[in-house]
Design a protein that fits this description.
Cytochrome p450; five-stranded mixed β-sheet; 440 residues; alpha+beta; globular; 53% helix
Length: 440
């Protein structure tokens, strides 16, 4: 069967809310053209999968027949060959070694760090103080993942450097990934800032790695898991460069997703008074003034629904795969070497899967309603063998941070200061100004 060709080209970047509307219209148009739609990105033909069941089939059922696509080829030289960008047997080997770092028992220990950092963050707030919420969320996420990674005195220096440099790396790295290759060679201030930030982070992380090898002490942090990990088939560990690449992967993945979700969660609580009231009531009942723990997450049922709804509303825009052999998806047969696109944002806002999809509705995650959501319709962390290894870590951190804020504070939007939205791989809030108001 031939795959239909949709008119137009897929936009990669946007910078305004109007661009978001155009993207929504574009993906809605693709749905009308079929479950698998061929589109052209410049001279590169690609296949856009719009049906959630076929996305699930692509990621899970046909997972061994695909690997990361062209976008990740561009990210690899920038962010290294860690779990997010590696492929094939190397990826399987690395995942087996990294997976224990995010075992439920270890995440429960990291939760203590999350709660302490969140408590320290909100302890500095003052009644009536205006907070720049996206900056607060970024600072908290960097500190949590940095302290979970490094527990030594030298590691503390690494955390400071990560706070200083990571967002330059994130911002400019995404720009490089979607720009022609010659752009990174131009003598531009942004290029110099990026190169300097990468050099500083690489130097301090490798210094910590070498220090760990000299001491050889398992301190229970993420770095210790990476350093002591062994391939069960060969008994080999990771080289220093491999450890560095996985550290970069954990930093990028652990900061960006969590910071975005936390900022948007606080934004949605402020915009939805009834949701905020229910979160406050649940936090008061479960915590009763205590610092939240990992064990409390299971009892914060409505808060978990809020986190799911935030992850549904504000996911990455699109992801790519490349076929290793002809792949049958529904009535379409994709040729070997085909670039395949699916959009978590489009899937999460598809009215066929979610009633009134642009409304913030945590109750759609109640057990009876969630059971009706099709497979593949909710993929904030991907699915299958390539699902984000740190998904439990991220969800726990978001819930603990929101619970910590909700226990003592309300955040109220500053009148006349609408939130601006910038787009790269996802919707980034800019200028999310909110006033801290004590609950009592």
């Amino acid at each position: 069967m031939s795959v239909p060709v949709a008119p137009g080209r897929l936009p990669l970047l946007g910078h305004t809310v109007s661009m978001l509307r155009r993207r929504q219209l574009f993906t809605a148009l693709l749905r009308k053209h079929g479950d698998v739609v061929r589109i052209d990105l410049g001279t590169m033909p690609t296949y856009f999968v719009t049906n959630p069941l076929l996305v699930h089939e692509l990621l899970v059922g046909k997972g061994s027949s695909v690997r990361k696509g062209a976008l990740f080829d561009r990210f690899r030289p920038i962010f290294g060959n860690g779990l997010a960008t590696s492929d094939g047997e190397f990826h399987r080997r690395q995942r087996r070694m990294v997976q224990p770092a995010f075992h439920r028992l270890r995440v429960s220990r990291y939760a203590d760090t999350m709660a302490r950092v969140a408590a320290e963050w909100t302890a500095d707030w003052r009644p009536g103080q205006v907070r720049v919420v996206e900056e607060d969320a970024q600072a908290l996420a960097v500190t949590v993942v940095g302290e979970a990674l490094f527990s030594t005195e030298l590691g503390k220096r690494a955390v400071e450097e990560i706070r200083r440099s990571l967002f330059t790396v994130l911002k400019q790295g995404i720009v490089r990934a979607v720009s022609p290759s010659f752009v990174e060679k131009l003598p531009l201030p942004a290029n110099r800032a990026f190169d300097d930030a990468i050099a500083r982070m690489r130097a301090i992380v490798l210094e910590v790695v070498r220090g760990w090898r000299e001491d050889g002490v398992d301190r229970g942090d993420l770095l210790s898991v990476l350093m002591t990990a062994r391939d069960p088939d060969t008994g080999a560990g990771m080289s220093d460069d491999q450890v560095y690449d996985e550290v970069m992967t954990l930093l990028v993945g652990g900061v960006e997703t969590t910071a975005l979700a936390l900022a948007w969660a606080l934004h949605e609580l402020a915009r939805n008074p009834e949701v905020e009231r229910r979160v406050h009531a649940e936090v008061d009942e479960v915590l009763a003034g205590r610092t939240p723990t990992f064990a409390d997450i299971g009892d914060l049922v409505y808060l978990r629904q809020v986190v799911n709804e935030v992850l549904r509303m504000y996911p990455v825009w699109f992801l790519m795969r490349r076929t290793l052999e002809p792949v049958e998806l529904g009535d379409a047969v994709l040729p070997e070497g085909a670039e395949v696109i699916f959009s978590p944002h489009a899937l999460h806002h598809d009215p066929a899967s979610f009633d009134d999809p642009h409304r913030f509705d945590p109750d759609r995650w109640s057990p009876e309603r969630a059971a009706r959501i099709p497979k593949g319709a909710f993929v904030p962390f991907g699915a299958g063998a390539r699902q984000c290894v740190g998904n439990l870590f991220a969800q726990t951190e978001i819930a603990i941070a929101v619970a910590t804020v909700a226990a003592r504070w309300r955040l109220v939007p500053v009148p006349g200061e609408p939130v601006r939205v910038k787009f790269t791989s996802a919707a980034y809030p800019s200028g999310m100004l909110m006033t801290a108001v004590p609950r009592n």
